[in-house]
Each structure stands twice: as structure tokens, then as C-alpha cells.
Design brief:
The chain has about 425 residues and is an alpha+beta fold. It has nine helices and 15 strands. The termini are far apart.
Length: about 425
């Protein structure tokens, strides 16, 4: 029993255990619902649903903590809290918790024994050093005390390695694990800097796209939210494979090398050493309400009807996710080319859902006015944008423009 509410035996035990570990302020006093003693069909499910709603985030944090995969191992991660200090020029997050290994101790890290004890190094871009140091060095001090190690971090702006030393191997491994979790956490807060993509801006496609825009504005301009500002720049038409956070020249080089490995190991076999001939035809919308659309896209598929393009991009995505260069959000790439996006209405350089954080990791909310896409979908459902030969995958840099008006590329592989 919890506050007069009867829980099914299969959830009451774990619930009590979880509640005992929560701060008192997180437990809210509520009146039990009228179905608490009901024996009618469905009452059990309702009680379970009520339990989930009532204790929602608090229970999930305890019973189902966030898991982080590092070096083939799985770790539980306690929440990292944000605190604001007055009279500070910049707010930063700092280490408040710890990580516990979800499995037995492992040898995933290279730890070297020295005359003084043990030593391990961590490669990280200088932009993330401050999150390991923390305000007034608090994060590093806490790590050193809890793991009985010494942590040396390069000065801001200097590239190098974080060096961990200690008398005990287990302490060095523990410090390394915690640093990896911090780096991963704050890397995920960085805005995306690059993306892997096929360019879809061949002359024929650009001309057909402009024709599409002209006809939509001619026939649907009276529909709510439809105007010229929400159309993609035809020179920037592309098919995104995955988004990247590359914070140093070394990481850009690593990405180039990874892409070359993909070419040698499976891209050449799938493409046959030739460009992939595809069609860009038909339109679809991202959300579930055609009357309130934010993103409208053109569909892209192999002209011969095969699955080769989908197989190729999915395997590239999988390889980059396994390396940690791309955060795993999806198991498959959605083959599409954005043609209309309401974010363009206020910012022609906006880039969809990916523009979520500022450079210092602060979340930003993009207010957008949706448009009514029902007539567009009805009139242009099968609009033909043209045929393309995909011969290159580019590492494109966001918010840049090359001499052709497309995104600047800092690396690429060619199929032929």
C-alpha cells in the first residue's frame, strides 16, 4: 500500500524500492483514484497506467537509468545537473554524479603500468576540456578524489591528451570511464557541425525544382502558411545520410578515413564502381497532419527498382554509429530531399531539426509557423524532379557555401 492506493504485487515491490531512493521532494502526495479497488476488466491495466503517470520521470530515473555504451561496454549514468552561478561570465555544467559499470570490470582501455603506478590517456578536442575541469576546477577535483587519481588536462586552446595516473589500475579505469561519459554527454550537446550527404543539385533537378516552386505558389499560395520563403535553395538540395559533430581537424581527418574504409569494404561492391542512377519523384510530409506541415520532402529511389541505395546508406550509417562519430538515433536512413521547411521562413540558412543547440551547448527553441499542405500533396503527389547519377558522398560543413552555392565539402569519396 502507498498512501491508501493498492498496487498489483508485480509492481509494488520495485516501486517501493525506487521511492526509498528518491529525494523526499520528488514524492508527491495524491488522492487515490476511484478505480483503486475495482475488480472489473481492465482495472489492472488502469492501475499500472496510473502508476506510470504518477511517478513518471522519478521512477524511470531509478528503475531505468540512461545507459551509455563505451568501448563495447554498457554503463549506467546518473543525471548531470546544471547549476547557475552569479557573477560568472559563462554557465557550465559540472560533474555531480558518478557512473557504475553495468557489467564486470573490463579491459577495454589501454592502461600502462609505470614505475609510479598506472597511466591512461584520453583523446578529446580542446573544446570539451572545460567540461572535465568544471567551474573552479571542481569537476576534476571530484574525479581525482573519488578515483584516487591525478588528471592532467591541456590548457584551453591547446590540442593534446588528457592523462590519468594513479596507484591503482581500477582507479585509473574508473576515472577514464567517468571522463568518457562526461565527454559523450557534452559532445551530444554540441550543435552539429558537418553531415554526410549526396548532392542532388544537378541542373535538370534544379530546373524542375524551380518549376515545382512556381506551380505551388501559383496554385496554393492562398493556403495557410504557403509562401516563397519556405522553399529550399535549389543549389543546396541534398540527401542526408547522417549528422556529425566534428570539433577538431583530427576528427575531420578521422571521418575522411572512415569514409574511405567504407568505400573499400562495401561501397565499391554495392555500387559496382559506378554512379548510382536514381530518380527524385513524388512528395511526402514528415509529421502526421497534412494540414499542419513543417517539412515537405521529395522521395529518392533507385531507377532500376533495386534496394542498393538504401543498403549503401544504411551500412555507412551503421559503421559511423559503431565508431561513435554519429549518435545512434535511427537504424535506417530515410531517403528524402527536403523541398519545403518552415524554419526557412525566418532563417534562410536554417537546417531543420538539427539546429537545436548553440555553440556553448544551450538548447534553443525554434518557433515555426506550419503550413497547410493538403492541396500541395493532392496536386503534386507524383511530381517528377528528375534523374540523377549519385557518384560521391560528401562530408559537408554546415553554414558554409562553396563557389557553386552548395555546402562546402571538406572531404569526399567517389564511386567511379
Amino acid at each position: 500500500m502507498i498512501q491508501g492506493f493498492t498496487f498489483p504485487h508485480d509492481i509494488e515491490g520495485p516501486l517501493l524500492s525506487a521511492l526509498s531512493r528518491l529525494p523526499r521532494s520528488r514524492v508527491t502526495r495524491v488522492s487515490p483514484p476511484s478505480f483503486r479497488q475495482s475488480r472489473r476488466p481492465g482495472a489492472l491495466r488502469e492501475r499500472q497506467d496510473f502508476t506510470r503517470i504518477l511517478f513518471k520521470e522519478s521512477i524511470m530515473e531509478v528503475l531505468r537509468p540512461q545507459l551509455v555504451r563505451i568501448g563495447g561496454r554498457i554503463y549506467r549514468k546518473n543525471p548531470i545537473q546544471e547549476q547557475t552561478y552569479q557573477h560568472e561570465e559563462e554557465d557550465e555544467d559540472f560533474y555531480q554524479g558518478f557512473v557504475e559499470c553495468a557489467e564486470d570490470p573490463c579491459d577495454a582501455y589501454e592502461v600502462v603500468q609505470t614505475q609510479q603506478g598506472f597511466r591512461c590517456t584520453v583523446k578529446a578536442p580542446s573544446l570539451l576540456y572545460k567540461h572535465i575541469v568544471g567551474k573552479r576546477g571542481d569537476t576534476r577535483k571530484k574525479l581525482e578524489v573519488e578515483t584516487k587519481t591525478s588528471i592532467s588536462i591541456p590548457k584551453p586552446g591547446q590540442e593534446g591528451e588528457i592523462v590519468i595516473t594513479g596507484q591503482h589500475r581500477s582507479g585509473v579505469i574508473s576515472a577514464r570511464t567517468r571522463i568518457d561519459v562526461l565527454l559523450l554527454t557534452f559532445r551530444r550537446k554540441q550543435p552539429f557541425t558537418h553531415f554526410l550527404a549526396f548532392f542532388l543539385n544537378e541542373v535538370e533537378v534544379q530546373e524542375r525544382f524551380l518549376k515545382f516552386q512556381e506551380e505551388v505558389l501559383e496554385k496554393c499560395s492562398m493556403d495557410h502558411g504557403v509562401d516563397s520563403t519556405i522553399f529550399q535553395n535549389p543549389k543546396k538540395l541534398h540527401l542526408t545520410i547522417g549528422m556529425l559533430v566534428l570539433l577538431s581537424e583530427q576528427e575531420i581527418q578521422q571521418t575522411c578515413e572512415m569514409l574511405q574504409q567504407c568505400k573499400e569494404e562495401f561501397i565499391d561492391d554495392i555500387s559496382g564502381g559506378k554512379p548510382l542512377e536514381v530518380e527524385m519523384a513524388g512528395i511526402e510530409y514528415m509529421n502526421d497532419d497534412p494540414g499542419m506541415v513543417d517539412v515537405l520532402y521529395a522521395k529518392v529511389h533507385m531507377k532500376d527498382g533495386s534496394n542498393r541505395l538504401q543498403e549503401l546508406v544504411d551500412r555507412v550509417l551503421e559503421r559511423f554509429q559503431a565508431s561513435g562519430l554519429i549518435v545512434k538515433e535511427w537504424n535506417s536512413v530515410k531517403l528524402h530531399a527536403t523541398v519545403m521547411n518552415t524554419l526557412f521562413r525566418k532563417d534562410p540558412n536554417a537546417e531543420g531539426r538539427y539546429n537545436l543547440y548553440t555553440a556553448d551547448g544551450k538548447y534553443i527553441f525554434k518557433e515555426r509557423e506550419s503550413f497547410d499542405g493538403r492541396n500541395i500533396l493532392k496536386l503534386f503527389e507524383n511530381f517528377y524532379f528528375g534523374t540523377l547519377k549519385l557518384n560521391s558522398i560528401h562530408i559537408s560543413q554546415r553554414f558554409t557555401v562553396d563557389s557553386f552555392g552548395n555546402y562546402a565539402s571538406c572531404g569526399q569519396i567517389d564511386f567511379s
